[in-house]
Each structure stands twice: as C-alpha cells, then as structure tokens.
Automatic annotation (TrEMBL):
Keywords per UniProt: Membrane, Transmembrane, Transmembrane helix
Lineage per the UniProt record: Bacteria, Pseudomonadati, Pseudomonadota, Gammaproteobacteria, Pseudomonadales
Designated name of the protein: Uncharacterized protein
Transmembrane portions of the chain: 20-38, 50-68, 75-95, 101-119, 161-183, 195-217, 224-242, 248-266
Keyword Membrane tagged: yes
Keyword check for Membrane: yes
Length: 290
C-alpha cells in the first residue's frame, strides 16, 4: 500500500475522532472568546461578538488538524497546549461572574477535548500517523501515472470536482452561522442567556456538515442529505427573520448562501462526484472480498 493510500485508510477509520477533536477545539476557543467579552461587559454580548468568535475560533483548530493529517504529527502538542490554555484562562475568569451557560461550555469543552486526545483511540491514530510519516515513500517510476487510491482517472476527477464539493461544504457551514445569528437578532436580541444556545446550534450545524462530507467521501451518496438539511434549515430560518434582520447586506447574504448551496448540491457535477465515490467504495469492497 502506498503512502497516500495508507493515510486515506487511517482517515477512514478515525474520521469520527478527528471530527470530534476539531469540534471540541473550535467550541473551546469560541466559548472562551465569548466569556472574555462577557466578563468585562455582560450586556454587550451580541451577534457581532458571536461572528468574531466564530472567525477567530475556527481557523487555528482547522489548520492544526489539517497539518496533523498531512504529516506534521508534533503539532498535536500545539492542540493540547491550546486546550490547556483555554481551560486555565476559563478557570481564572471564574471570580469575575461570567455568563453561566457559555462559561460552563468553555469549561467543559477543553476538558472533554483533553480526554479525547488522551484516549486509546486517538493515541492509536496518532501512532499510526507517526508511523506513516516516518515510513520511506516509494518513488514513482518514470511514466507511471499518479492516481489517488490507484483507481483510473481518480486524480483528474478530484481536480475537476472537489472544488464544488468544498464550496458546498463551507458555504453550508457559513449559511447556518448567518441564519442563527439572524434569528437571534430578530427574535431574541434582549435575551442574553440565549447566546449559549446560538453557539450550540452553530456547532451542531458544523457537526452535521462534517458527518455528511465524511459519508460522501466514504462512498455513501446519501450523506448529501445532511448538507441539504443544513442548507434548507438555514434558508427557512433566514426567510423567517428577513423582516427584522441586522441590515440589508446581512439579510441578503443569509438567504443567498443556502440557496447557492442547494444549487451546488443539486448540480450535475456534484451528483457525479457522489456517484464516483460510491463506485470507488464498491471497488474497494470487491477487492477486499466482501
């Protein structure tokens, strides 16, 4: 088995663990930012604070997990350091009367994240990534085609179609975030205790999108309905709060993004993308004798 195939096999087995650790790291960082903002002025926590925490809390955990998968295995200690720092800062803010639900979320997520990183499954996955990264890579012979998963035309297929799939995935997560903030501003602007629920709904939407993307990548074409459900829910929420939105640009964006996602998911290219991965899965099972 070549280097890329070993990484793909390891990712297929451990995708739920990677998704869980990413979600916990994002939730820890976002909730900590909200706690810091609410500690100094609890009455100022608003939709803009949630958007700022979303932008700040997603980038670092995402980059750490991507680099970890690509072979920079030592970066797992950066992830551990991030969770420990979030936990220590949250504990240090206890005496300053932080918001209840958001504070306990900021305290709970890094604890669970550290337990996941220290679990047997994550240790086994980390050891496997270390083994793969240190193993010598087989050199490609002159004229030998470079095929992902060694299936004919797979590399060219990914170059053609993966851009649309990634666009639908990230736009679906962005649409649920905008829709939740829009609904919160329209109907619950005077209820600060609902901010924790806003954050939880965003994380649930990201989790459903990640599960759907993982199912599609593993050959289960029906995983696209997870993305469709997130996009349709976002569109309905945005339409329901259209009259009392933050501003015109935000309202238009909250309606346009899920509409674009639904168009992408229903396009011929995305259907071919899902069908091709289903074919690859059947070929893989046939080679394994199942």
């Amino acid at each position: 088995m070549n280097h890329q195939a070993e990484i793909n096999a390891c990712l297929r087995r451990n995708f739920p663990l990677l998704t869980l650790s990413w979600l916990l790291a994002v939730a820890s960082l976002m909730s900590l930012i909200l706690v810091i903002n609410g500690t100094h002025s609890p009455s100022v926590i608003s939709s803009s604070d949630i958007l700022n925490s979303l932008k700040s809390g997603v980038v670092i955990p995402t980059m750490l997990h991507l680099l970890l998968v690509w072979g920079s295995t030592r970066l797992i200690w950066w992830l551990v350091t991030l969770l420990v720092c979030c936990l220590l800062v949250t504990v240090g803010l206890y005496t300053q009367r932080p918001p209840g639900l958001i504070y306990y979320l900021a305290l709970f997520c890094p604890l669970v994240g550290l337990l996941v990183l220290n679990g047997r499954g994550y240790r086994r996955m980390y050891a496997r990534f270390v083994e793969i990264s240190k193993a010598p890579r087989a050199k490609r012979l002159p004229g030998e085609p470079v095929d992902v998963l060694r299936y004919p035309g797979m590399a060219a297929f990914l170059r053609r179609y993966v851009g649309r799939f990634c666009a639908a995935f990230f736009l679906a997560m962005a649409s649920i975030s905008l829709a939740v903030v829009q609904v919160e501003y329209a109907y619950f602007a005077q209820h600060l205790e609902n901010m924790g629920y806003v954050l939880i709904v965003m994380l649930l939407g990201a989790a459903v999108c990640s599960i759907g993307a993982g199912l599609i990548a593993n050959g289960f074409a029906w995983g696209v309905w997870c993305l469709v459900a997130v996009a349709a829910t976002s569109l309905l929420m945005a339409i329901a709060s259209l009259g009392a939105g933050i501003n015109l640009l935000f309202s238009v964006s909250s309606v346009a993004l899920p509409s674009v996602v639904l168009v992408l998911l229903n396009s011929h290219h995305h259907r071919q993308f899902c069908k091709r991965f289903a074919v690859v899965r059947r070929l893989r099972l046939r080679k394994a004798g199942r």
